[in-house]
Design brief:
four-stranded antiparallel sheet, about 300 residues, alpha/beta, 12 strands
Length: about 300
């Protein structure tokens, strides 16, 4: 992979899992409590049903642990590993009742995060065919799951954009409209931002054409976000306005089909909200398997 994967915050995982288990009323599973004896034990395997990138096993481990400390969870692949249909991702063993109560929540985490990691890996690979641009995510995440979903982006080989609104200045279209209502343009808004925030924060401006990009560059912006521009338009902007300290970020409508051409335009960053808001879940199943529980590892 292109980078070491910064691990998940255990507190974020613990909190997300607790909320999901309560949402599912997992401890009150009337079916399992009625038909699975408390003393019955066994084991199950999480298995991929399609090719992709594995992610979310830490969340699955925490899910089973919160239902029962007696459940033993063993990951069989690394986070970020490429898997094929039929590959075993993890094994869990112990009392069957809490194992079944945790099943859906654990699978939801693995399927969702593996889906994000899979789409991310594909976009990173497509972009690399066009140039060295860094693929990054956006804040278009599921409320309450940002930490986990952005971890999945990293597992897929991409990088994170600003995590929260306090992490950097990004003057977007509606900020520009609000400024225009006061009679202030791009240059004026950049000056106001510079006066208001610490010098350690970058100032980025979203533009839709070369005129806006030129105004932002001349006003001293650190990053220019080229929104919904064609690869040819972006290439022209980078060629005429690049070469200095300013970075160019391509955003809006980035697809697997266009990623290489966008990277070839010369931008340093490619941001995609689709990585988190539109990634299809990876099909993963949990199946009870016959045989004794494995010896402790």
């Amino acid at each position: 992979m292109a980078q070491p994967v910064r691990p998940l915050d255990p507190l974020a995982v613990r909190s997300a899992v607790a909320i999901a288990l309560e949402e599912d009323r997992a401890r009150h599973d009337v079916t399992t409590l009625a038909v699975v004896p408390a003393a019955q034990r066994g084991r199950a395997v999480l298995r991929a049903r399609e090719a992709g990138v594995a992610c979310g096993l830490a969340a699955a481990r925490e899910t089973f642990a919160q239902l029962s400390e007696q459940l033993a969870f063993v990951a069989l692949v690394d986070e970020g590993a490429t898997v094929e249909p039929g590959d075993a991702l993890a094994e869990v063993s112990g009392p069957l009742a809490p194992l079944l109560q945790a099943e859906r929540v654990a699978l939801n985490f693995v399927q969702r995060l593996s889906g994000i990691a899979t789409l991310t890996r594909r976009l990173v690979e497509r972009a690399a065919a066009g140039g060295p641009a860094r693929v990054v995510d956006t804040r278009k995440t599921t409320p309450g799951l940002r930490e986990l979903e952005r971890y999945a982006v990293r597992a897929g080989g991409a990088f994170n954009h600003r995590n929260t609104l306090e992490d950097g200045v990004l003057i977007k279209d509606n900020h520009l409209r609000a400024g225009e209502a006061r009679g202030i343009g791009i240059a004026g808004l950049i000056r106001e931002a510079r006066r208001a925030v610490p010098h350690t924060l970058r100032v980025e401006v979203e533009v839709t054409d070369e005129g806006g990009a030129r105004a932002a560059v001349e006003a001293g912006a650190d990053v220019i976000l080229l929104d919904n521009m064609s690869p040819a338009e972006m290439s022209g902007v980078v060629e005429r306005l690049g070469g200095g300290r300013v970075l160019f970020e391509a955003s809006g409508g980035i697809t697997l089909e266009t990623a290489a051409a966008v990277a070839a335009s010369g931008v340093q960053l490619i941001s995609s909200g689709a990585l988190t808001h539109s990634a299809p879940a990876l099909d993963v199943a949990l199946d009870i398997v016959p045989g004794p529980e494995p010896a402790s590892r």
